[in-house]
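Following up on my earlier message about adenosine-5'-triphosphate. Here are the inputs again, as you asked, copied directly from the submission form:
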Amino acid sequence: MHVTHLSLADFRSYARAEVPLGPGVTAFLGPNGQGKTNLVEAVGYLATLGSHRVAADAPLVRAGAQRAVVRAQVRQGEREQLVELELNPGRANRARINRSSQVRPRDVLGILRTVLFAPEDLALVKGDPGERRRFADELVVARAPRMAGVRSDYERVLKQRNSLLKSAAMARRHGGRGVDLSTLDVWDQHLARAGAELLAQRLDLLAVLGPLADKAYERLAPGGGPLALEYRGPVPGASREELYAGLLAALGEARKQEIERGVTLVGPHRDDVLLRLGELPAKGYASHGESWSYALALRLAAYELLKSEGHEPVLVLDDVFAELDTRRRARLAELVAGAEQVLVTAAVPEDVPEVLEGARFSVADGEVTPE
Ligand SMILES: Nc1ncnc2c1ncn2[C@@H]1O[C@H](COP(=O)(O)OP(=O)(O)OP(=O)(O)O)[C@@H](O)[C@H]1O
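Thanks, got it. Here's what our run produced:
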């Protein structure tokens, strides 16, 4: 798939921007702080309903404006679709497809798929478990957009369950009247149902992603592997029903402790993905260069996986070449050069490897101008 046109209104530093795009490589070049990343961030947002830089939407709306609008015309094979999101911080976002009446934002998932490489990716290897969960879950949703609903159900139930547990814990601590916990059984069932589905999809993802990531690592850093991805968290069975029953039982066992601590202690929100390099975990052991290769290998594997499943994503390389040594830079460029669409940002043209020849825009003073 590829984006044929990107429009922004009041998104980040842009009052307005209209950017025609074609297949192949497009590079956005310009000095620091001119809005190159803002452009590709908008593309990533349309694909994932999230930014790779910030957790909340507020910074995405131009300072002084009430809302931002991001729109992209997306072509997959013969089919073109116009996808549009309106970001309303503090209120519900809105979405439209082909200028239809409003749909839920998550209904646009799957129209555009992206795999985005950014300097922040180092946190996939070096950062907290939450970084790896987010990586896995974004990919779970890119493979099966209906999983966005399951994920948001899980998060909603978790929040409500946590607030009930918190009130119970507070009441205990302050010796007050007990909190009515009769609804906890129902929350447990909901949490286990959505949790089992998420867990099953994560496990399925890792089983196919691991070998692809290992292959990508070998191409980026020959002889440096092998690499393996291991799920870290209770896996109480293989089938969906076993996972459900196991999670439910684990919640039952943890209940006393949960009421004491006021928080949900069991479920996929606590899990991690162990990234192994050779015999050792990458986190805490891999060098800076190895960590970079690992992060790139994960993204390349994500690209290969979606492509092999018939959804070749748009590749976005936000400022990554400047972070890499010459060898990794050349290998990465070769590996992505043949993709249907590659969007690259760089401060200077020398940071875009020669094999990534293509269209160029200069980005300065809020203007995006074809070169
Ligand atoms: N919500 C916002 N409203 C107005 N301006 C914003 C907003 N968010 C970010 N900016 C501005 O956008 C600019 C940063 O843009 P961006 O991150 O795209 O830079 P860049 O061209 O990729 O730079 P670099 O090469 O340093 O990565 C900053 O000047 C910042 O002040």
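One observation from looking it over: Helices lie at 36-48, 122-126, 129-143, 147-173, 184-220, 240-261, 288-308, 326-336. Hope that helps, and feel free to reply on this thread.
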